[in-house]
Batch of 2 targets.
Target 1
Amino acid sequence: MKRRDFLQQSSMLSLGTFLLPNFSFTTGEEQKYGVQLYSFRDEMAMDAMGTLEKIASIGIKEIESARSSKGHYYGLTPADMKKACDDLGMRLTSGHVALDNNFDKTMVEAVASGQSYLICSSMPSEGQTVDNYKKVAEEFNKAGEKCKKLGLKFGYHNHEYEFESDNGQVLYDVLMDNTDPDLVHMELDLGWVIVAGKNPLDYFKKYPGRFPLWHLKDMNMDKKESTEFGKGGLDIKMMLRNKKASGVKHIFIEQEEYASTPLESMKHNMQFLKSI
């Protein structure tokens, strides 16, 4: 090839890369990891903007908000939260909320923030019984219908107690069997699943494609608390190998206890993910 032709082709390739920044020569799409902001709960309460900047600086591309003493957006308006994320090259994808009397307002705020998912963060009513979980499932279906009308997706985030049994039935399975997959989008917290003595892979197999969101959380199995990746009982590499079966689209890292600081722990977690 003549040098002139080589330079012309190289220029066209560079232009194509510039115009198509997401194009990749690799065989698979790189996973973009997010973080549940509860991991930075104290920092977000003190300095939301500064903390978001630090989170963006370590390669986080998506965030999931959580309820705080300053509201769902840490004292920012939903629009300001959206702009802050846009400016930092991140996306506010999801938010943990309560299914309560303020849920209509919560939905309106979510639309203004530009997020896609509203995730109920814990059981809206007490009672570890099959009947209660069926009742809750119906509440979730109704909430899902309301969200769908506004262009949102409703979901639920588990802890360990949902995997207790009543009358020979695992309560989480009751919830899965009685919710409409088109209306209730499950966020599976992998760490709490293993603390409950269950295997997430079994749920991927039993309910394929039902888990568009994950909380990727390693757990110290003796203390029953979260820890840095690679230090606990979750086989993270195995989970990621099976993410297609689960239907996951958004993976949020969550860590509630730390060896030093939330930022240092999150740096460790991101480096761990790169290493595998």
Note: Residues 118 and 154 are 5 Å apart (CA to CA).
Target 2
Amino acid sequence: MVMLDQSVVAVALDPMAQDIGMTTVVMHWVVLVYVLSLASFVPIGAMTARRYGLVPTFRTGVVVFSLSSALCGVTPAGSGAEAFVLAARAMQGAGAALMLPVATTVISDVYDSHHRGRALTTYAGVAQVFFVMGPVTGALLTQFLGWRSVFLVNLPGGVLTLWVVGRARVPRRVSRKPLPVLQSLLVLPALSLVVLGVYESSVWGLAGIGVLSVGAALLIVSVRAVLVAPLPLLQLRLFRIRPYTVAVVITFLVQAAQFPVLVHGTVYLRQQLQMSVLGSGLALLPFVVSLALGTFMSGFVLDHWQSIRVPVVGGLFAATAGTVAWTSLLPFGTYPWMVTAMVLSGLGMGAPIPALSAHMMNTVPEASRGDASVLRQMLRQLGGVFGLALAGALLLAVNDRAADQAGTVRTPATFAVFVAADAVLGCAATLAATALPKKTAAARPRFSSLSRRAR
């Protein structure tokens, strides 16, 4: 449910906009606020699970997620519709953040160290599949049941999830350590202001720069507070491990490119090529199926070549080439020519993430893997947030005002968003080619002091 809801809304955005009168800005924020809330609350979810137990935290997340999904599905038309749906989407993200850390913790507990890497890689692959299923699922639901069904379907999904969790035998372990509430109260507004400043920079001018500066200053204060706290919200000292840091940055960049391409590629097919809701979902299949295929191939390629560089560097250069080709075809509106570019782009974007997930877990000490997973999850989601924020800034700069008010994204605006995604993928490919190790199973350096701090 968590991964599907990040992308399932992409196809429903245009019907939503036409039905309840959303502008292009609100269309963006329907996706953006969910991912921002998810990213910001992931550390809180991890801490809550330690304090109150894995299963109670997960169940609470499922209930919050399902009920807020229902609220999205009953959004009333009228002047308050935009604020209503954005508030409900923020609640959805918070519910999802209570679920995600529990899932990875349970997997880490169930499997021993020898099998944990493959288990986490499989988990990342399955999660990615549900992410890429979103546009097609959203198209089918919207076409036959209306856009509200995209959200309401989470109600039976939530009930089923609660039933399954009731059958799981997860040990109850709780900690008496307090929740770092003050740190979270600093991090959330800091991230929100930075994202808002980036998004509105092309419209607000100096005011946008001011918001961005305040957010950046508050973020620096937040980082400092986390570093000196006896019980840190995030183990930021993990960034002293260079291989881990490189892998996290590459993951951030891939997500920053993938999210805008998925969202704006879908809107382009619907609005500029005049496809039906179902037609746009099916037309995106070459991209999403290739994304899923690349995800599952990643582990096999990594095992065969025993080098992280093959799936990551090779995948990123393929993704860059495919997305550049896709970008060049946007002004002509010739969909059949785009199919090959979509396939190459999808394969390339899918290959790096699972391999990087396994690589990251192998670069940190055993005692720090839980903290490393939480930090990775947060920054991966933030990659999508900042990618969409940059896309929004470009859209507002290029799109005309009448189109913004009508909830329409013109082809030049889509082209600008794709060019930015090309540049981000190029940076990721360059970093991977120059900074990743040649061998996967390199000897792990000693981080004894870091391990003691983490424990």
Note: The CA atoms of residues 46 and 101 lie 5 Å apart.
